[in-house]
Structure formats: C-alpha cells, structure tokens
Amino acid sequence: MRIDRSIVNKGPELEFDKFLGKGSYASVSLFKYKGKRDGKTHYAAVKTSNIKHAKSLYREFQILSEFKGCSRIVQCYGTKVLERINEEGYLEFKIPMEYASEGSLRDFTERFNGRKLPDPWIRRFTRMILEGLGMIHGRGYVHCDLKPENILVFPGFELKISDFGLSKRDGDSAWWRPSRPFAGTPIYMSPESISQGETRSGLDLWSLGCVVLEMYTGKRPWWHKNYKLEDLKKGYTPLIPRELPCDAKFFVMTCFMSEKDKSKNVFTLLRHCFLREDVNYKILEPLVKNESSKDLALELEKIEHRLSQLRSFSRKTRGIGESQHVF
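== Mitogen-activated protein kinase kinase kinase 20 ==
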C-alpha cells in the first residue's frame, strides 16, 4: 500500500540536478525549479534527511527562520520543512536553501596553490565571518561547528555561514558527556567546551582562529602533531606559524584567549587592527527578538509528536518488517 500523499506538504516542483555532499544527518543536492512569477529556471540547494534524523533538520529550520534577511547567514526558502515521498516510497524531509555557486570555503581554497589564500582575501573573509557570528551570537545562539565546510562562498565572493544542525543556545551544557565531549568537529573545539561542556560564544571565536590559520597555511589545525584531547585540556593551541603577519598572529591569539576573558567577543575582534576595512555595523542591528530556550523546547516537542505520528502511519502502510528496516 502506498502512503497517502495528502500528508505531504505541497511545495515547488523540484528537479534533481546533481549531488553536492553529505553531512552527519543530512545530504545536500542541487535542484532546479521554474519560478512562478518569471518562469525562469532557478536553483536551490536542498538539504534532505530521513525520518530518523528529521528532528535535527526541523531544529535547523527553526533556527534559520530566525535569520531571514541576515546577509551573512545562508537563507532557507519557504515557511516549513517539506515532507516528500522518494522514489523508493520512503518519507523524506527537505529544506530548500539558496545555492552557493562557488561552493564551500574548503572548495574555494582548493583552487589556490597549496590551498593558501592571499592575505587581503583572508582579512576580507574573516571580517565577513565575524559579521555572521555577530548575528548568531546576537540571537543567543552558538554555531558550535564553524569550519571551512560550513562557510559558503557566493557570487562576488560573499561569505555566509551555513549548517546549524549542531547549534545550541548560549550556555547550554546539557549535551556534554565525558565519553563524547564534542559539540561539533573535535579539531575546531575550544578547551572550555571539551573539558567542561561550556557552549559559549567563545567556542565559535576559537573555531574562527582555526579557520584563519587554515586560510594562511592551507592545513587543518593541529597539523603539526597528533591531535589529543589532553593537549586542549593542558591549554595548548594550534601552531601559529612565524611567517604570519604580526597583526594576524595577534588576531589568532585573541581568538584563542580564555573564555573567561571578556575582551574576547565579536565586536572586539571586528575592531582589531587585523581587519583594516570599516565594518558595516548596520547589518548587525536586527538582533533583538530572542526566543527563549523554553519556547524552542516546546516547538521541538510538537515536532517530535508529529514525527511519532508519521512513523506510526508509515508502519501501518508499509508493514512492520519493512518499517523496522527503514527506521
């Protein structure tokens, strides 16, 4: 028996173009569709998850919806997560988002000799990433997984931060476990987050320091030695090469400062001598309207209830044995 398509949200007819990549809980593919008003072909990067990871996708959509119009955050389309049936009859969940034709910052650096970017580009890119973090922190969130793969490059070489699947509220430590002390990707995590489970804005700034080093060196942080958790707990930092410009060294050192140091924040770094261009502070203004973690928890509870209903419906229509294989 086929699943009744009346349970599936209506949306634009998307035509698959190519596969772009896969993350921990979702894949991303390029789709094209016809614009309703102009009839022209448009492109969207569609993030797709199965029912097992749907809650994470819904949560990311909830967060992205708070950043509508923010120029340094990747934009999602529509007012809800799309629920579709794939060709194999399985229920999928999709978020259409704007397509970054230049790929991720990781892809972009591959075009350069030794994957090292020119100094002026690094300064400009760093400023744009900081502007995005200002928006995120202003809304009371910590991205938790800032790295070149999650920074997208758009036409005109404009950067936007993407992938909010692991993002958390500032101060949330409920995720931390001694057996798995990572909120995001281990080599980009800060000492405080590893040893104490602190999810503060300083975590993103530490990760930013790692990204800046990568843009200069073409190598991932901790390339000079085997990465160990104990290194972070002892206060070690990734190697800062001697050949970096002095102001770049000081900037990265500031990123690696202790979480308790109050001088370590987005606005202090935006005024750093490393960033010579004037910062457009107006794009950081619409940062009020914070949702409390309680409101978000209630919303996620509704989503969990909805997913539970879908699982139950799918088991009835596909048969218990097959549904166990799916879920």
